[in-house]
Design a protein that fits this description.
alpha+beta; 4-stranded mixed beta sheet; 2 helices; about 20% helix
C-alpha cells in the first residue's frame, strides 16, 4: 500500500481514534477503532477519503442527538438511519 503523504510503500491498514464535529456544530464525538492508514516511514496516520465520506454521510443520516460522546466506528455505522441517502452530499 502506498502512503498518500510520502509515497512510501511501507504503509498498512490499521485503526485509530478520531474526533469528529457533528454536522450541526453542537459538539464533537470520539470515534474509536476507525479504519486508517499508518505509514512506517513518515509516521503519518490518516483516514482515506472513503472512510471520511462514510463518516460524514452517516452523521448526516442519523439522529446525532442520541449518540454517546464516544463510540466505535462499527457502532456509528450500525446506527439506524432516518434517511436512505445523503441528498446534500457529493
Amino acid at each position: 500500500m502506498t502512503c498518500d503523504w510520502c509515497g512510501s510503500l511501507q504503509s498498512k491498514q490499521g485503526e485509530n481514534t478520531v474526533y469528529w464535529e457533528l454536522p450541526d456544530g453542537s459538539r464533537a464525538i470520539t470515534i474509536t477503532e476507525t479504519p486508517c492508514i499508518r505509514c512506517d516511514d513518515c509516521g503519518m496516520t490518516y483516514q482515506t477519503e472513503r472512510t471520511i465520506d462514510e463518516i460524514e454521510d452517516q452523521l448526516m443520516l442519523i439522529d446525532t442527538k442520541s449518540l454517546n460522546q464516544q463510540l466505535t466506528f462499527k457502532q456509528l455505522m450500525e446506527t439506524p438511519r432516518w434517511l436512505k441517502m445523503n441528498y446534500f452530499g457529493k
